[in-house]
């Protein structure tokens, strides 16, 4: 076949979910992919990174309990950690994902997809052969992002690691320099320090600048306690490699390392997908409306609205779970428009991924973990919200003290003074990820505080912090 109802460019989790919703709705779909079906998350991000981090987290948890600690006679086995990581990355083989596409009735076209006309995608295979695909209703761009390698003199020639190389390596470098203090940098500092590397983090713009400062401070203190050097406020001025990596700074300092990992942000994979054919600039983030139709420079949907973008490439929320949420919405709205069904584009409507703006949950799997959803104090101020900040020491919660000796952490919630509802939540501490979905529900459902007071947390659990936060707020 060369004609389908919907063509999806990109077979990561976002593209897969778009195509799945389309075929569930009774339409046909083809998905175009030039790399592994399953995308970044399956092979170089979510799954393998968390596999790298999990063994160390389990070991730390055991060591925080005296009886369990007495049973520990050794340290991490890097080879076993890497082997488990390999299993979660399916050994970088996509047979299982391809089989699933076939099972649910999604056509896979291997090669690089480019928009070459109205509702037309030309796919170029690795051998140069081309095939032209036509969509009856929609083309969806779900091409994701790639790591940025900044233009630091000598850096590219030094063959730096990006997240892909760091996540897929089976070698623990003796010395590792990480450039960038964001999520990738902090998680990889946690992982490689636990595996035995001497790690230096160079965070010119600060450590985890988008989370509450107290949460970032907990992570920095923990990393430093584990021997990680964290340098804030300066960045490399030059890099070279002559067997070892040499990193120079503007103030005259220098570092040597066996590997350098660059974790300074992401760029959209949109530079070679034919955006110029629809009047857009190649390499740009794709701006979308509330139902994820791509917008042109005039702020209106491109052409008659047949082009959509979902996931990281539209820059709304660069997280896999948010991309899959968008995918469900865009798949359903494409089916609705194709079949003449009503489009529910109200805020919080079925076809409108409103949570991208109000309730984006994220877990940062450092030691300690950071879990957050909704606004921080800084983002609430930028949004013009008048909020009251309530904080509580997690160490004072009975369930936390039982969870681990020496438990240290903090939680905070932001209360919208006008609506008397929670609009933001952050927690930092061991295993706080499990607190997050309760906060996500409270924010998404806009639960009034007087009703939330009746949600009684079980005792003794770390979730008791919800009661303590509400009591601190005066309820």
From TrEMBL:
Keywords of the record, alphabetical order, are: FAD, Flavoprotein, NAD, Nucleotide-binding
* Domain called FAD/NAD(P)-binding: residue spans: 4-321
User: Which Cys pairs are S-S linked?
Assistant: 41-46
| Pfam family of the protein (one) | Pyr_redox_2
User: What residues bind FAD, as annotated?
Assistant: 50, 113, 312
Question: Does the keyword Nucleotide-binding belong to this entry?
Answer: yes
Q: Which GO terms describe its biological process?
A: 2-oxoglutarate metabolic process
Annotated binding of NAD(+), by residue: 180-187, 265
Mitochondrion found in the keyword field = no
One example GO MF annotation:
dihydrolipoyl dehydrogenase (NADH) activity
On cofactor binding, the record's note says: Binds 1 FAD per subunit.
Organism superkingdom = Bacteria
Residue ranges constituting the Pyridine nucleotide-disulphide oxidoreductase dimerisation domain according to the UniProt record: 360-466
List cofactor names only.
FAD
Task: Name the family.
Answer: Belongs to the class-I pyridine nucleotide-disulfide oxidoreductase family.
Protein name as it appears in the record: NAD(P)/FAD-dependent oxidoreductase
């Amino acid at each position: 076949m060369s004609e389908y109802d919907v063509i999806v460019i990109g077979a990561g989790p976002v593209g897969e979910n778009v195509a799945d919703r389309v075929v569930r709705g009774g339409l046909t779909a083809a998905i175009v992919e030039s790399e592994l079906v399953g995308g970044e998350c399956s092979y170089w991000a979510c799954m393998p990174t968390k596999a790298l981090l999990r063994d160390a987290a389990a070991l730390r948890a055991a060591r925080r309990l005296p009886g369990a600690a007495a049973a520990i006679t050794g340290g991490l086995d890097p080879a076993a950690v890497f082997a488990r990581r390999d299993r979660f990355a399916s050994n970088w083989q996509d047979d299982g994902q391809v089989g699933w596409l076939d099972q649910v009735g999604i056509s896979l076209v291997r090669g690089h997809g480019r928009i070459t006309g109205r509702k037309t995608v030309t796919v170029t295979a690795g051998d140069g052969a081309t095939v032209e695909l036509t969509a009856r209703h929609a083309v969806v761009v779900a091409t994701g992002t790639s790591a940025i390698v900044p233009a630091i003199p000598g850096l590219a020639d030094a063959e730096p690691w990006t997240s892909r190389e760091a996540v897929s390596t089976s070698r623990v470098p003796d010395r590792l320099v990480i450039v960038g203090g964001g999520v990738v940098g902090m998680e990889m500092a946690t992982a490689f320090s636990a595996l035995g590397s001497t790690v230096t983090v160079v965070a010119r713009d600060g450590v985890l600048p988008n989370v509450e400062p107290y949460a970032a401070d907990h992570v920095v203190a923990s990393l430093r306690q584990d021997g990680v050097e964290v340098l804030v406020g300066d960045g490399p001025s030059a890099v070279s490699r002559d067997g070892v990596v040499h990193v120079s700074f503007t103030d005259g300092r220098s570092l040597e390392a066996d590997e350098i990992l660059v974790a300074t942000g992401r760029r959209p994979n949109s530079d070679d997908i034919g955006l110029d054919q629809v009047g857009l600039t190649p390499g740009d983030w794709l701006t979308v409306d509330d139902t994820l139709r791509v917008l042109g420079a005039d702020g209106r949907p491109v052409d008659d609205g047949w082009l959509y973008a979902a996931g990281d490439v539209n820059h709304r929320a660069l997280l896999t779970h948010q991309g899959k949420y968008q995918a469900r919405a865009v798949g359903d709205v494409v089916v609705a428009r194709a079949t003449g069904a009503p489009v529910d584009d109200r805020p919080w409507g079925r076809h409108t991924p409103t949570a991208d703006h109000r309730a984006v949950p994220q877990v940062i799997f450092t030691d300690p973990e950071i879990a957050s959803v909704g606004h921080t104090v800084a983002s609430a101020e930028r949004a013009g919200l008048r909020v009251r900040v309530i904080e509580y020491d997690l160490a004072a919660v009975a369930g936390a003290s039982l969870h681990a000796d020496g438990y240290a952490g903090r939680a905070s919630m932001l209360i919208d003074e006008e609506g008397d509802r929670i609009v933001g939540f952050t927690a930092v501490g061991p295993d706080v990820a499990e607190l997050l979905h309760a906060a996500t529900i409270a924010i998404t459902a806009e639960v009034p505080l007087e009703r939330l007071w009746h949600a009684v947390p079980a005792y003794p659990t770390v979730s008791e912090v919800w009661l303590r936060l509400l009591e601190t707020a005066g309820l």
